[in-house]
Amino acid sequence: MQPYKNLLKEIANLVKSYSINENVEMHISKIDNFDYQINLFVKYKSHESIQEIIENIKKLLSKSELIEKFEIAENLFINLRFDVKKILNQLSKVDENIKVETPKDIIIDYGGPNIGKPLHVGHLRPLNIGRSIYLTNRIVGNNINSDIHLGDWGMPVAQIITYCELENIDFDTLSIQMLEEIYPSSSKKYSDDESFKVMSQETNRKLSVGEELAMTRWKKISDLTLSSLKETLSSLDHDFDFWWGESTVNSLIPKMLEGLKKSNKIEKDGGAYISSEITEPRILITKSDGSYLYITTDLATASKRNKEISHDKVLYVTDNRQKLHFEQLFQSLKFFDFPDKEYEHIGFGTINDSKGNPLKTRDGGNLKLVDLYDQSFKYIQKINNSLPLEEIHCLTNTVLTFSDLITNRKTDYKFDLEKFTNVSGKTGIYVQYAQVRASRLIESMELDEEGQNNKLVPLGEIERNLVMGLGNIEFFLDLSLKNSEPHHLANYLYDISNLFNSFYQDSNIKKIEDEAERSQKILITTLFIQYSHLVMSCLGITPVKKM
How far apart, in whole angstroms, are the C-alpha atoms of residue 161 and residue 207? Predict the structure, then answer.
């Protein structure tokens, strides 16, 4: 809670007076009977004023109303136990306590599908990770905008247009189902047929100069795909502030390149242009045939964002395999004298089947995201056949989201539908069940407002564990935001759900006769609902009303 942050500031100000300019951080304690630990001073054992520093910290901690007890171990670890009643009094202020002091302006770039083809399971991770980072930043008060960055220009689109022309496919009758079949066929033909390759390159040239017929056909493909894409994403509870694509900035590239030539930031290498900066490998900006690369489009997109969207930081959510691309992009942005912004690549691993292989269809093709959703929906409906369809939908999205986010984004994970729908496992179903159980309890009870606010009674160990668990929310919010790692919040949600279930089984609230004790337990239950719903909002999960 905010008071612990204030305590950290006081300690930080104290140590700075001794020229120790480091962040003072608290960590969840693994020692019984203590809640938090500060281990900064281990490295300063030899500091000339260390004894004086420790004595002053002791005085500071002794004065804190928040601290029930503390100890400074021989290794200078500072172990803290908080006054749980003080924490309980602070829990209702979570909405104001979690807000950042100085909001940042952020753009998050994620999703990035190509037009002309359906979303497949590989898109699940960037969508889930990106949305969670976006929502969490919004909830704590940062000004963040999302951009899907569509792959809607260039050779893949030229291939589709050329294929349709060769096959005499009427563009007026084109459907999304037809496009899904045409895309892989046109891609294969481009690889296998030299004459088709030349024709596609000519189509691409026509697009680049804005030839009317080519542009009309591009727009047809783009509109069809975008409509289908938005429908699919909406069903999975995804949306974006900006739907920019490569086409949005394509017309800006020639002027950008001319400027880079004049300032000697890029140079000719054969027919290609490379960055003038000496790097290993050299950074390619355009191909030898003059066509653009991902980095060309990304540079133009950065330029457009600098002009149109207020921001001081940009996050790019793509898989780990694109690490080099973004290293080169960030290096180029600096070398080309783009406005000084903070850039970060948020990499992630792959989603695999239960055997560790990439998720595929039975015939070995890419599994469409809608098909994964349908499979999951039917499975959940089968084991929860009495629930309304809307609740099945929410549970399906919960499974597809939580099973992804509970895993550290940097690693691969195995999608196991049976495992991830287990009500007693570390699953989205489990955390939904906990909040439903709590909500049902509150609906069946009458809350004594006076008792809730004023009549605190001693807390047992199980109650204390839950209250302190709820009080840890800022710690995990900070951890998640600092590292752009939603799994910290997903694990926190599971932990407090587990603590609540222990509390629920131990309390038997309905049979408690003492009004103050009863009201206190109801208060704790109400706070659990509030906190679990808050974290669900950060993860992109909608609470269900019944299970």
Answer: 10
